[in-house]
Amino acid sequence: MINTLAQTGARCLLVCQLIGRSGVFLINILGWGKGFKAPCHRVIKQIHHVGVLSLPIIVVAGIFVGMVLALQGYSILSSYGSQEAIGQMVALSLLREFGPVVTALLFVGRAGSALTAEIGLMKTTEQLSAMEIMGVDPFKRVFSPRLWAGVISLPLLATLFSLLGIFGGAFVAVNLLGVYEGSYWANMQGSVLFFDDVIKGLIKALVFAFVITWIALFHGWNARPTSEGISQATTATVVQGSLAVLGLDFILTAVMLGGF
C-alpha cells in the first residue's frame, strides 16, 4: 500500500514538473519581457515546412471527407424528404467541426511529429548547445519561428480543408445523387453565418495550432538525446496532441454554444 502511494505521488510530481517546465519553455519562446523573438524570414521558411508540405494530405482528406459527408447526409436526409438541405449540412459540419478538428489531427501527425523529431535530433547532436556557446539564442532562431509558423499555417489549412470538402460534397450531391445544384448552394448560403460558423471554426483552428506546436516543440526540446528518446518524444507528441485537440474541441464547442 505504501509503495503504491509512493509511486502515485512520484508520478504526480513528475507530471507537475513537466507542466512547469513546459510553461517556462513557452514563456521563453514568446519572449515575454524581451520583445518579439521571431525573425520574419525564418517564420516564412518554417511556414513552407509545416504548412505547404502538409498540403497534399489536407487536400486529399478534405475532398474525400466532403464526399463522404454528402453520401451519409443524403441517406439520412432523404428519409425525411429533406435531401435539398444537404448543402447546408455539409457546409456547417465542415466549418464548425470537421474542418478544424480533422485538419488539426492530420497536422499533429504530419507536422507535429516532424517538429519533434527535428528538434530532438538537434538536441542529440548538440546543435542547440553549440548555439548557446556561440551566443545565439536558440529560442529566437529555432523555437519561436516554428511556433508562429504553426499558428499561421493550421487555420489556413483548415479553411482550405473546408472549402475543398464543400466542393467535394457538391460533386457527389449534384453529379452523382441528382440534387438540384441551385438548392445545394442556396441552402448553404442561407444557413452559414460568417461569425457563428466561419470565425468560430477559425478560432478553434487557431487554438489547436498553438497547443499542437507548443506540445511538439516541448517534447523535442525535452527528449532524451538518444534514438529511443526521440522515438518516445515523437509518439508522445502525436498522442498528447491528438488528445488535446479532442478535449479542447469539446471545451470550445461548449463555450461557443453557451454550454458553460
Describe the structure in your own words.
By secondary structure, the chain is mainly alpha-helical. It has one domain. It is 84% helix and 0% strand. The protein contains 9 helices and no strands. It has helices at residues 2-30, 40-50, 55-77, 86-124, 127-133, 138-176, 181-191, 194-222, 227-256. The chain is elongated. It starts with a helix and ends with a helix.
Write the H/E string, N to C: HHHHHHHHH
> Percentage of helical residues?
over 70%
In this structure, how is the largest beta sheet organized? none
Question: How many structural domains?
Answer: 1
List keywords for this structure.
about 260 residues; about 0% strand; single chain; 9 helices; mainly alpha
Summed up:
This protein has 260 residues and is mainly alpha-helical.
Q: What order do the helices and strands come in, and which of them pair?
A:
Layout: H1 2-30, H2 40-50, H3 55-77, H4 86-124, H5 127-133, H6 138-176, H7 181-191, H8 194-222, H9 227-256
Helix pairs in contact: 2-6, 3-4, 3-6, 4-6, 4-7, 4-8, 4-9, 6-8, 8-9
